[in-house]
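User: Recombinase domain-containing protein. Structure?
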Amino acid sequence: MDGCARRSARSECGAQQPRASDADAHLRGPAGRGVAPLGYDAKGRTFIVNAAEAATVRTIFKLYLEHGSIRSVQAELDRMGLRTKHRPGLQGTAVGGARYGRGHLQHLLTNPVYIGRIRHKETTYDGAHDAIIGTDVWEAVQERLIHQSAKDRGRIAVSAPSPLLAKIVDETGDRLTPTHANKKGRRYRYYVSHRLIAPRGALDASGWRVSAERLERASAEAIASRMEETAFAIKLLDSPAAVEIERVRRSAAKLAEGLRGERRNALLAQVIAGGSISPDAIAIELASNVLASLLEIDVARIDPSHLSIIAHIQIRRRGVETRIVIGDAPPDIDRNLITKIGEALRWFEEVKAGASIQDIAGRERVTRQRVGQVLRLAFLAPGLVDDALAGMQPLELTTDRIVKAPHMELWKGQRAWAANL
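Assistant: Predicted structure:
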């Protein structure tokens, strides 16, 4: 290594050492001083889980997901008789055992120590201790805290990443919680029955795990369709004048347009007061004050009986995921897949009539390998072809995935492969 390279390496290492040193000191500090957060006891330079306190921590996270309000969590903790951690004070007297304050709960719910990490300044590091809370629960709580903070300031974030947060329950009354999964570098959002993210919850076959995009789109379409109903304004208002009907129709049309455009999630977060989902319908309750503001009418004029929307749906289960098709909405057909299946069938007929792969490749100006790949679509299981034609194929069943999949001669094997995408 020449002198320049050595100096560069020393410079780089020197820049990293203070950060690592600071982090190490931070990791050693709290445990070394015997200061452990609720749920842990200090042991040497790390924390060990205190089973009884860990149960309290899980209860606090669970209560926040259920209620969405720190004030409500405080009330529930008081009712349950749960108090803060007991610890020795500086003068040898015990401290703690008090009611949980708002600031205490806010700090607890945002402390990454509970997912096995340690915060140091603006960065978090992997800790040497065990996690108490799963990452799904942690992320759901953080997202809800952010959403509630924006709501408390009198606004909804423009992006509204999970607009149905704390609004929808399943047929058992279990609240749907936003979560996500990463697959090959891509982030997929879902709404999941809360019991599925509790310990052993994944074993509950009755729980919902539905694509967030599809549920949000279905909810937005249900509301937009109601806004476009000819008699909507007449039904919504108590004895409306002709000029009022026309004004409400214009405002309702504008709302419907927004629900189908870039403002969809922000509008959903505001206009939906609550709702539920079952195997055959989505039920939505509109927020009267928000709707009145959007339609520029007096909230006292609204007939509450017309704030409820029932959208009939069809569902398809693919593994653990549930797919939604709302009412008579157009099917989500993959036009490219349908085109390629038709192309494959035509090419296969040509091969049967005596044409060679080279002949087809030359005519279509593609490689022989590509012709061979596309021809595989001619042997796709009839059930999968029917699903594709109806727009009900698995989300990941694309042309590219099929032509690059392991060779499967049996239709049963194809269906099993597709179901696990």
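The mean pLDDT is 80. Residues 335-419 form one domain.
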